[in-house]
């Protein structure tokens, strides 16, 4: 949210010039943040699965 306020201030537009645009930008940032953390979680699960598979194969 701070990023959108900073970006709006840098462009010289008043923050309330287009409320729907501000809402869209905020929703977009939240979606990107959410998607990013979900992607990181998926990658961590893949790595954990690989480590587990290696550990199990070493025991045999």
TrEMBL record:
Biased composition (Low complexity): 1-15
Domain of life: Bacteria
Region (Disordered): 1-22
Protein name as catalogued: Uncharacterized protein
UniProt source species: Sinorhizobium saheli
């Amino acid at each position: 949210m701070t990023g959108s306020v900073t970006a709006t201030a840098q462009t010289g537009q008043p923050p309330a010039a287009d409320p729907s645009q501000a809402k869209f930008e905020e929703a977009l940032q939240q979606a990107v943040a959410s998607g990013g953390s979900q992607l990181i979680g998926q990658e961590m699960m893949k790595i954990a699965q690989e480590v587990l598979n290696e550990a199990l194969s070493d025991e045999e």
